[in-house]
Design brief:
By secondary structure, this protein is an alpha+beta fold. It has one domain. Strands 1, 2, 3 and 4 form a four-stranded antiparallel sheet that branches. A hairpin with an 8-residue loop joins strand 1 and strand 2. The mean pLDDT is about 85.
Length: about 90
């Protein structure tokens, strides 16, 4: 992926979760979002993706399943990536 100029980027991971306990209702859709982060022309995109997308989303997924939610990941439905031109205040 190449960018000209600076951009802001935010990600939304949509997942289906199924109940661990049989008395709970069916599948539920849950979204995990990253914070809006700037990407500059000098940014290493592999490191940026790891630090601002991969690690935070995996952490949120693990925390959701571990916090005694009663839900287990069933399927990843999609990843939405929003990229906007960077406009510093």
């Amino acid at each position: 992926m190449e960018f000209e100029g600076e951009h802001n980027c935010v990600h939304h991971l949509n997942c289906d979760f199924i109940p661990v306990k049989p008395d709970q209702p069916g599948i539920v859709l849950t979204s995990f979002n990253t914070k809006n982060k700037a990407i500059f022309t000098t940014t290493n995109l592999h490191e940026w993706f790891r630090d601002h997308v991969n690690v935070p989303i995996l952490r949120d997924l693990e925390e959701f399943e571990e916090k005694d939610s009663g839900w287990s990941l069933h399927a990843i439905m999609g990843l939405i990536v929003n990229v906007n031109k960077y406009n510093p205040l």
